[in-house]
Amino acid sequence: MFCFQCQETAQCTGCTRVGVCGKSATTATLQDLLIYATKGLCEITTKLRQEKQDISRKLNQFICENLFITITNANFDDEIIIKRITDTLNYKQELLAKLQNKNNLSPVALWTTNDENTYLVKGATIGVLATENEDIRSLRELITYGLKGMAAYNKHANALGKSNDEIDAFLQATLAKTIDDNLSGEELTALALETGAFGVKVMALLDEANTSRYGNPEITSVDIGVRNNPAILISGHDLRDLEVLLEQTQGTGVDVYTHSEMLPAHYYPFFKKYKNFAGNYGNAWWKQKEEFLSFNGPILLTTNCLVPPKAEYKDRIYTTGVVGFAGCKHIPGEIGETKDFSAIIEHAKKCPPPTQIETGSIVGGFAHNQVLALADKVVEAVKSGAIKKFVVMAGCDGRQLARNYYTDFAKALPQDTVILTAGCAKYKYNKLNLGDIGGIPRVLDAGQCNDSYSLALIALKLKEVFGLDDINELPIAYNIAWYEQKAVIVLLALLYLGVKNIKLGPTLPAFLSPNVAKVLVDNFGISGINSVEEDIKSLI
Ligand code: FSO
Ligand code: SF4
């Protein structure tokens, strides 16, 4: 195996025997093959589009799910991945028969087999390292990971009935370009930036999907203590799953708590009507080993980030959507179907209430609509000098000790600065009680990682209000933490919007070759983090 798609990759170079995430070499190889087969499928769908043939919505969704399944910590279940490879090959055969011009198809598009026993042998020959030129490999992987993030956000929008043919067509055409040996480094670099443009589009689509169904996030205080009822913990990013779970738990005596990236659900007006929607339990994804244990009740994982579960609570883990782990119960349901959560609800009834690990509350809900409603106050605070600088600290949290940098950085920021956050990175400083500036909290949480889109909208609005030509003239610094591939699409989106001098940590991606990293440094001023003191000095 060779995998270097996430920030925690071994020695910051690549996982080669087993993933730091717990992914086995077999699972990694099968995931490589799933991506390979999906790239071939996308070459065919792209050619069909050129022939003006229709690609079904179901197939677009299938492709996104294939990508989403291979995101870090989403799916560890070999049986599921093998079935997806087989389904992908079947789709390819079906579509090849429809394709009129079969000239110039790549070996990837044409590859097929009827023998699942050969998947591992084939998979071992087509992984990341099969691209020998390290710069081309770097760019191909940068684009592929960005597309994985895009696919995840697209899937969430699809689950709420929103889709955009242009996004699906771009995603598939671009994925196919990552197997095109005729593309130069310059062309792939341009493609990476174009991927960022579509990153903005997909986040806008998801924002519209979320807000049109659930309302605009608003300032909300979320309880972090516990009640005395049996309960279900829901983690991941899928708001539609949360909605269905809340509906089905009404009148059952079972409470529902959010974990990690599901916290921002509390900010949406829609979910406030559910009396059993009790609060947020715990912290970012990587703390789940302790927090799932003390929660006592069953846990529903709707997306990544699942850590291979400990035996003590494995029987309480339920997966759904793209998530999978052998031996954990999976709740089925395609997009458009209403899932049946009765098994997890019945399970919860037999469990003791959660053990309290924290008390109090945290405040969030500062997505674009809410912040723009406060625009006068914010602009006034900037003009008067009460707020000197905003620092965007969006992204992901993770288990590496080096990430304590973000807590220290937040604590060391001068009192006249405000943190704008989104994603699970927030857990490094959202319980620090950093105070407020004239009623504006010093940590403004917009929501999930995809709500980084809100932060970009806020920046664009401020640029307009202050009559500036360039987003980089605003008093906003960017100190972003990344972990998995959704952060890659967020980063590419920020670059597309023209944001310069982003600090990216806790380490730069291993998949950036020295030359590709140099392009990002020279053109965008991207840099890694240093000590807190040095970074406060350079950013503030
Ligand atoms: Fe965190 Fe995990 Fe949202 Fe990621 S929960 S690390 S960028 O999946 O997706 O922020
Ligand atoms: Fe390693 Fe990350 Fe890949 Fe897991 S996802 S195998 S930790 S690089």
Write a brief caption for the model.
This protein is of the alpha/beta class and 540 residues long. The chain has 19 helices and 15 strands.
Give the CATH class of the largest domain.
Mainly Alpha
Low-confidence segments: none
* Strand line-up of the largest beta sheet: 4-3-2-5-6-7
Give the number of DSSP strands: 15
| Category by helix and strand content | alpha/beta
Distance from first to last alpha carbon: 42 Å
Named once each, the bound ligands are: iron/sulfur/oxygen hybrid cluster, iron/sulfur cluster
What's the mean pLDDT score? 98
Per the CATH scheme, the topology name of the largest domain is Substrate Binding Domain Of Dnak, Chain:A, Domain 2
Protein traits:
540 residues; alpha/beta; Substrate Binding Domain Of Dnak, Chain:A, Domain 2; Rossmann fold; 3 domains; 5-stranded parallel beta sheet; 44% helix; globular; binds iron/sulfur/oxygen hybrid cluster; binds iron/sulfur cluster
Question: What is the topological layout?
Answer:
Layout: H1 25-50, H2 57-69, H3 78-98, H4 107-110, H5 119-123, H6 134-159, H7 165-177, H8 185-214, E1 220-223, E2 231-235, H9 239-249, E3 255-258, E4 277-280, H10 288-295, E5 299-301, H11 311-314, E6 317-320, E7 329-331, H12 342-349, E8 361-364, H13 368-373, H14 375-384, E9 389-392, H15 404-412, E10 417-421, E11 436-437, E12 440-441, E13 443-445, H16 452-465, E14 476-481, H17 485-496, E15 503-505, H18 514-524, H19 532-539
Parallel strand pairs: 2-3, 2-5, 3-4, 5-6, 6-7, 9-10, 9-14, 10-13, 14-15
Antiparallel strand pairs: 1-8, 11-12
Helix pairs in contact: 1-2, 1-3, 1-7, 2-3, 2-6, 6-7, 6-8, 6-17, 7-8, 8-17, 15-19
Bound molecules: iron/sulfur/oxygen hybrid cluster and iron/sulfur cluster.
